[in-house]
Amino acid sequence: MAIGFAIHKAKRKVSPDLVARYRTLPVANISDVMSRIAGTNRLRPMHKGGWLGGPALTVKTRPGDNLMVHKAIDLAQPGDVIVVDAGGVLVNAIIGEIMSTLAEKKGVAGFVIDGSIRDAGAIRAGSFPVFAAGVAHRGPYKDGPGEINCAISIDGMIVEPGDLIVADDDGVLCVPHGDAEAICKLTEAKKATEEKAIQQILAGTSDRRWVDEALQRLGCEFKD
């Protein structure tokens, strides 16, 4: 029995139709709906910018080792997001230009890596989504161990296989599989409310009375 060195069968994933609905929703709005306590602030976009979304194909690997990430690319279905728990260690890169090119060719939606990448210039020049914690010139090892399709932690954010990953220039969020439909509906309503607020500002009809009402309620004093 190999402890910590296994490939598990995927049992569920969010639907492509639901992923498409999330494409129109800012991560900031989703974060608000999720009580502003979800997600990670440490991983940043390493590509030139743009949205990432899709079901999580999870990988847990020994820091600095990418053998199981290679296998995850081979197993990935079009639209999957490969999410790698590399322990947040930044010494060795987990992927670079070759692996990102291979994943893009296979139809992978993108990478989320709690670890480093390299070939940062090439990745930054492209549109293939890569979110990571850092950059390192040192290459990875390929010895294992690791697991695929297991629960992982990305900077404290729990990700289960098949959960929805969404990311944009503001950061990365995991939407739990069982909550994805409800959170989508709430976020669509939140986005509509914010769009209405923007239109009121542009039209000069925004009601700002709530600011003074909040200050009064909280006991703020106005002094000369």
UniProtKB/TrEMBL annotation:
Signal as UniProt keyword: no
CDD domains assigned: RraA_family (cd16841)
Pfam families: RraA-like
Binding site for substrate: 96-99, 118
Record: residues binding Mg(2+): 119
Keyword annotations of the record: Magnesium, Metal-binding
Molecular function as annotated in GO: metal ion binding
Cofactor(s), by name: a divalent metal cation; Mg(2+)
InterPro entries: RraA/RraA-like, RraA/RraA-like_sf
Domain of life: Bacteria
Protein name stated in the entry: Putative 4-hydroxy-4-methyl-2-oxoglutarate aldolase
